[in-house]
Amino acid sequence: MKSLRSRAVVYGLVIVLGLLSALPNLLSHNQSGKLPDWYLQNTVSLGLDLQGGSHLLLQADLDDLFSGERQAIAEELARTLREAGIHYGRALMVGDRIEVPVRQSDQLSEAASLARKLAREPPDGSRRFDVDQNGGRLVLTLTEAWRENVARDAVERSLEVVRRRLDETGLVDPSITRQGSDGILVQMPGVADPSEIRKLLGTTAKMSFHWVAREMGEGVAVFSLPDANGEGRYQLEKRVAMPGERIRDAQMAFNPDTSEPVVNFKLDNEGARLFGDMTRDNIGRALAIVLDGKVITAPVIRSVIGGGSGEISGAFTTKEASNLALLLRAGALPAPLHVAEERTVGPDLGSDAIAMGLTTGLLGAAMVIAFMVGLYGRWGLIACVGLTVNVGLVFGVLSLLGATLTLPGIAGIILTIGMAVDANILINERIWEESRKGKPAWMALREGFGKAYTTILDSNVTTLIAVSLLFMVGSGPVRGFAVTIGIGLLTSLFTAIAVTRLIMEWRIRGRAREPLVISGIAWLDRLSERGVNFMRARMTGLLVSAVLSVAAIGLFVQPGLKYGVDFTGGTVVEVQAGTATVEQLRTTLQDHGLDEAAIQEFGADGRFLVRLPVAQGEPGATADQVASLKSAVTSAQPDAEFPRVDMVGPKVSGGFSDATILAVLLAGAGMLAYLWVRFESHFALAATLTIALDITKTIGFFALAGVEFNLTAVAALLALIGYSVNDKVVVFDRIRENLRRTPERPMLELLNDSISSTLTRTVFTSVTTFLALLPMGIAGGAAVASFALPMLFGIVIGTSSSVFIASSILYYLGQRRARKGLAQLRPSAEDIRKELEQIA
Q1: How wide is the angle at C-alpha 274 spanned by C-alphas 269 and 280, nearest 5°?
Q2: Quaternary structure per UniProt (predicted)?
Q3: With 681 labelled, which of 73, 219, 327, 795 sits at a CA distance of 20 to 30 A?
Q4: Could you give the domains of the chain?
Q5: In this prediction, what percent of the chain has a pLDDT beyond 70?
């Protein structure tokens, strides 16, 4: 109480700074005119699902990259052996190895020695490949360290090339980040159709100049390439006359004689010198310009070309010439990039998502506030003030981090509102318990906060474990959800423990020695005081829970989960096609070879969801499905629109499946370890078994209700794990407290008393979280149905298991522990101190 003023200053400063950090998000353009730019940039940006745009996940084709590395090493070794006079055969690529036959066995050791010298890469001397001898052959295998180094370098260079290409297009604020070991994530706000960008980024643009071979049989290595139109082929010298990296600038222009679009290029100094020498020595020969394995043009050199410039012509359209110039300016990709995942949201759909998120969020918050004020009166109003501050601080921290707010992020904020109330309810109930013992207001406040603090900390840490794992294994919007929940849990700790306590202490100032009265629901309070014999139904509860879980597992097997493209791979396109019917759309797609398309009516007339299975074949084949589908639909319905596109390749979907299983297992293991440390092994095991029962029932709900199981559903599962453990920790914390205070009491009586005394908190917390999510579950639409509906179901299941299942399992595990002669709890620091005092 003495430090009330100083704490008010410190807490007030933290709150003001947090709210000031969030303020730029609310200012209009006119209001922000006089503020500095660095402050105005401190805002939360909207995700693509809220403002519309496209998201492309590009993956580098590392197989092609390593194949090129092996070929380069083979050519380098061949040159070295030739210079040393060692006779060798043609290099063979056998899997990941290079095998070079040495014709004379007595030269094999010398060849191996030369190969080992080549294996060392200057300047750091790292080893590129291992050298072995096998039956007269040199066997070269790329080292794992070198493979990782090559892959990392290729992705980093690809990142820079992608950035330069997008900058050249004039695209507004694209976000380009590395994802995983071989992925590049490109997010483009406002781009509703990324087909042109996809083509631009997927083009390797590896350019080189080759002389057209004069005659076969001259002893010069040659190879054959098609022309750009695929109508003819050229026999070219394999040796590169000049690499395309020498081009420093390229611009689209028009040939003054033919008026056809051409590309004028300029070379760097070394390139200009080399090009001049080449053309001087080869007048009358054809020089082919090769781009990505095709001959664009092969003009005959008529005179020396000096000055370091030239022209590329090839019957281009204006757009093709412009794109080629752009690609040459930006540079070639070191490895081909394939679209592994594509998601597109139209601007109208994004604005609808914002309106839905704001409406359901405000309605859920209003229902929570009304419940708290109606339940606790002015003390509930204090909790609501803390809740409002908490939401402001969440936005302040998100703004400070420059985070991106997505639709799952809005869901996370709404869930945070519901879960943040839990701490306030726990505090109010603890204070009310102390007040009923006749303690004055100041003491009830101190004791209530002191006893609630440990429980709040334990429950929040267990939830943070699940959320942190969600951040580690998730991607995109799911990570945004995890960040929002994590920040919300930390800020709610501050507002509940510090801000709410400060306001409560200010409220009782001058009346600290008077009894404290906190309203509630009288019949529920009486029920908690009198106690209920919940453990009488322990066998029935466990049996019913087990039967439901077995039934849920059966539903998981048949009919099974309705997996989204996140896990199955493939394409889902939302089509808005005017007056078209399902049959008309199906016929159109079949006429264009899309026989496997599954069509589902969606919302209003003329709106459909079209699903295509994952395409087999070359990397990036799934991406071509999107273009084919759009082309087919627009051929029959020219005014058709595509508000949403979700395309996931097989490699990405397989990664999501593995990551999901890993996340759930790690979440369970992490919380088991934490509860083992904080409580005892049988407490941790009881909580884990109960969570397993809750999760199986929730998965059964997915199967029974037909709710799509996607990455948002994974977020719901992990959030439910955290929420359910939160519930169990509150009950277990009270059991531990009662065990320490009265260890001689019968276990069944102690468990019943613990469940009854926390019943009010369990019910109230569940109701507030349910109310916070209810509007989203009813009106949130398909975008958040995979989150909101399982959460609502899970809250009911988690609450009932906290009352009837967890303590029953703990009872049987405790009995087993007692038969082994072990104590129910390890000695506390206070117990150890008392024993030492007795000994002394």
Answers
A1: 130
A2: Forms a complex with SecD. Part of the essential Sec protein translocation apparatus which comprises SecA, SecYEG and auxiliary proteins SecDF-YajC and YidC.
A3: 795
A4: 62-147 (3.30.1360), 207-332 (3.30.1360.200), 346-559+654-835 (1.20.1640.10), 570-648 (3.30.70.3400)
A5: 89
